[in-house]
Design brief:
Dihydrodipicolinate Reductase, domain 2; 30% helix; alpha/beta; 10 helices; globular; 25% strand; 2 domains
């Protein structure tokens, strides 16, 4: 029998709604150990909480005070999607209340905030804690991961991971909290997108020992939606160049977190080049991935078209296409599987250690980019 785990949602915006949608159509998955049921929601905006109550009959508690939700004994686990400046205060309270936690990136507004969260996780070892990152659950990304895990790449020539938005290309777009340092943090776009680009490199053990960075704030001001022009304080684009040590002399890793990327909507990609094997996947072409096995002579890329080949089986026929909403549901299936004692079918969500490692990289990149220097990455133990 499938175990039902009752959830509370703190922060009922865009990603909270995506979780609600994934939970509501859980029957789409054919073989899971547990399913989520959202029974409580919390947000300061009643329009958002009313959406949940109107669409999810399972919701029994609606509140503007997250502490009331945490006091609800029926809530076993919490999805928390609030601005970055609130992570270090709310995440530990969730754990102190005895709940499991699925939190949004970046797991703290900065490295110090992340350390507070890490300390709380260590103090509550019975709570499962994971961080959001859905893009690696695309079938093409999973093909790439399995290909890289399966055999010798030779000498790695370069790794590149990128997340490219065009959402801020329009200078007349009104400012939101992600453009305010006090709420988003000094990382800027790196804090918002960095976990996406680092999930796979960190999972595969590619941790840069030193980094440099180019940080861009292309639009210094934006309209506030009320007829005023206000400072736009955070970095729009960041390109991080790191060096990963290995026994062959090391290799470069390029990490791009761009919110101003002409020609892109929401493109996530990973490219790994090796002297024996190479692979590439991009959500711009979500139904295919590319790979090369080089044994001398011409280097020829192979392209494989993919259907619906998900990590967790679903009712969708294999010939059909996989999309963003499917990746969200697959990510949640991985978290639910771990909650029920499984191993997430071999690929779990971002761990607290990986979130801490990504903070170490972003912190070094921020210093490097603002001082025009190369910085050693000090990883947290």
């Amino acid at each position: 029998m499938t175990r039902v785990i009752k959830f509370g949602v703190i922060g009922c915006g865009l990603m909270g709604k995506e979780f609600a949608s994934a939970a509501a159509r859980w029957f789409h998955l054919t073989d899971t150990k547990a399913r989520p049921e959202i029974v409580a929601v919390c947000d300061l905006n009643p329009v958002l909480t009313n959406w949940f109550s109107a669409n999810l009959p399972s919701v029994k508690q609606i509140t503007a005070d997250y502490r009331e939700l945490l006091a609800n004994e029926t809530v076993e686990a919490v999805y928390c999607a609030v601005p970055h400046n609130l992570h270090h205060s709310i995440y530990p309270e969730i754990l102190a209340a005895g709940k499991h936690l699925f939190g949004e990136k970046p797991f703290g507004i900065d490295a110090d905030a992340n350390r507070k969260i890490q300390d709380s996780i260590l103090a509550h070892p019975n709570s499962l804690v994971r961080c959001s990152s859905e893009m690696p659950f695309f079938p093409g990304a999973q093909k790439l991961i399995n290909f890289l895990r399966a055999g010798d790449l030779g000498d790695i020539i370069e790794v590149e991971a990128a997340f490219l938005h065009s959402s801020d290309l329009n200078p007349d777009k009104p400012i939101n909290w992600k453009r305010i340092v006090d709420m988003n943090g000094a990382y800027g776009c790196m804090g918002d997108l960095g976990m996406h680009v680092l999930h796979l490199p960190l999972r595969l053990g590619w941790k840069p020992s030193r980094v440099s960075a180019t940080l861009v704030n292309r639009f210094a001001t934006r309209p506030d939606g009320q007829g005023n022009t206000v400072p736009c304080e955070t970095w729009d684009n960041a390109t991080i160049l790191g060096h990963v040590d290995d026994d062959r002399g090391g290799f470069p890793i390029v990490l791009k977190t761009w919110r101003i990327a002409p020609g892109h909507s929401n493109t996530w990609s990973v490219r790994v080049l090796g002297t024996k094997k190479s692979a590439y996947f991009s959500t711009k072409n979500p139904c295919r991935w590319q790979f090369m096995t080089y044994a001398g002579g011409a280097g020829v890329w192979s392209v494989e078209d993919l259907g619906f080949e998900s990590l967790f089986p679903a009712i969708t026929g294999g010939i059909f296409e996989f999309g963003f909403a499917d990746a969200i549901q697959q990510m949640w299936a991985a978290f639910m599987d771990e909650l029920a004692g499984g191993n997430a079918n071999g690929f779990g969500c971002v761990t607290p250690q990986e979130a801490a490692d990504h903070h170490a990289i972003l912190n070094a990149a921020l210093i490097a980019g603002t001082t025009n220097s190369v910085q050693h990455v000090s990883y947290f133990e």
